Amino acid sequence: MGRLLATPVGAVAAEARQRRSKGARPAGPRTEGEHVADIRVAVIGAQGRMGSHAAAAIEAAEGLELTARLGSGDPLEGLLAARPDVAVELTVPKATEDNVRFLVEHGIPAVVGTTGWSAERVRSLEALIAEHEGARVLIAPNFSIGAVLAMQFAQLAAPYFESAEVVETHHPRKLDAPSGTAVATAERIARARAEAGLGAVPDATESDPDGARGAVIDGIHVHAVRQLGMNATEEIRFGSAHEALSIRTDSLSTEAFMPGIVLAVKRLSEHPGLTVGLEHFLDA
């Protein structure tokens, strides 16, 4: 279908009130007993690289119906007329928090693939969700099945090696560094090391005036490369005195993320509240 055209906010709100007065279903998930049909999906950020691919994947997926494509200039109130069961939010870090807040406040479950969700932002979202019964939100640092599994493998390996570092490589159009996936990976490694009673990773560096050792996330060094010809790669490196282990995942195109997005949309109804990480949906 074509992109949902922007309409005046007042007109959208009036239309939504009129639909509710006539007994039409409001925005948000279907109620118990309502006829089960395709899951109605809206894509926010549909003009972007990820969003445009997601819209196409949703249109092609069995059991899903694309009801709205919103670009950066379209008001979110347009979703009230489109009545999606799930909104997929693929925008930019500076916009994502306000977008998700709107979705939660209007009873629209959300699958969020935008990075920039700091611990503080996540805590704020948890508090908001607690005020809205039935709210469902997934924040996924990565929708690539390979990347999700790599993070799980890294968490499993972390207690057995003294050294651990993360190197992520992306195309130079990426707006944030390090990537949300790299941050999540480092956090999981650090958590697994702490639970195993390991101390700090060995590093005798005393001088690093130019930041050559990269960012430090919970004690784990993370390095970001931005390079033409690349899409998305993460290499997780472990080492001990007599052996080394590397876990690498390559997402060769944006298409690599589409099966994960479709999976998330289909399984979101099974996960109330806030979920962080697609891995929680893999064995649902």
Automatic annotation (TrEMBL):
Q: Looking at the keywords, is Amino-acid biosynthesis present?
A: yes
EC number(s) for this protein?
A: 1.17.1.8
What GO terms fall under cellular component here? cytosol
The active-site annotation reads 170 (proton donor/acceptor), 174 (proton donor)
For the keyword NADP, the answer is yes
Q: Which UniProt keywords apply?
A: Amino-acid biosynthesis, Cytoplasm, Diaminopimelate biosynthesis, Lysine biosynthesis, NAD, NADP, Oxidoreductase
Q: Which GO terms describe its biological process?
A: diaminopimelate biosynthetic process; lysine biosynthetic process via diaminopimelate
Recall the GO molecular function terms of this protein's record.
4-hydroxy-tetrahydrodipicolinate reductase; NAD binding; NADP binding; oxidoreductase activity, acting on CH or CH2 groups, NAD or NADP as acceptor
Q: Name one Pfam family in it.
A: DapB_C
Q: Where does the UniProt annotation locate this protein?
A: Cytoplasm
Question: Where NAD(+) is bound, by residue?
Answer: 45-50, 113-115, 140-143
Q: What does this protein do?
A: Catalyzes the conversion of 4-hydroxy-tetrahydrodipicolinate (HTPA) to tetrahydrodipicolinate.
Q: Which family does it belong to?
A: Belongs to the DapB family.
Question: How is this protein named in the record?
Answer: 4-hydroxy-tetrahydrodipicolinate reductase
Organism annotation: Brevibacterium rongguiense
Q: Which gene encodes it?
A: dapB
